[in-house]
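Researcher: We're teaching a course module on how sequence relates to structure. For the next exercise, students receive a sequence and then see the predicted structure as tokens, so they can try to spot secondary structure elements on their own. Here is the exercise chain.
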Amino acid sequence: MKNSILICTALVSTGLLYSCSQNNGSANKQAEKPLSTTCYMALDGKDTSRMELNTFSKNVKGNLVISYSNKDNNNGEFEGELKGDTLLVIYTFKVGNKPTIYKNPLAFLKKDGKLIMGVGEMESALGRTYFKKGVPIDFGKGRFTYASVECKKESK
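Model: And here is the predicted structure for the students to work with:
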């Protein structure tokens, strides 16, 4: 009986020590610094949009705020990748102060130092929304064209 208790105690202790010593990668993700950061702004009538784009070695991340003159703002973050001259991201955002979180794909064409937002057909599967495969994204119908601007420094 004593041997069983000692064996169980040793196994549990070993498991705890092993799990505590593992680095699950979260420290590396937080420590990774972007290779570059570029800020963009776009205007469409009275509506404006600001984007901060952080480029990493294998992906991009950033923030996007779309401010509408006559409805609640979209405010959130995106993550994705640059494929050639096309930036494909998933935008996770809230509308105004509502608690609901939305996720939508966005596409931008890099051209002449600007980012042109594209419009494409969407489809949903398993609760996720995607651009419909085989249907091209139309960058001529996009609402916002983003030009680079100086990044705002956050005051601390």
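Model: If you want an answer key for the exercise: The beta strands are 36-44, 47-55, 60-67, 74-83, 86-95, 101-111, 114-117, 122-125, 128-131, 145-149. The chain has one domain: 32-149.
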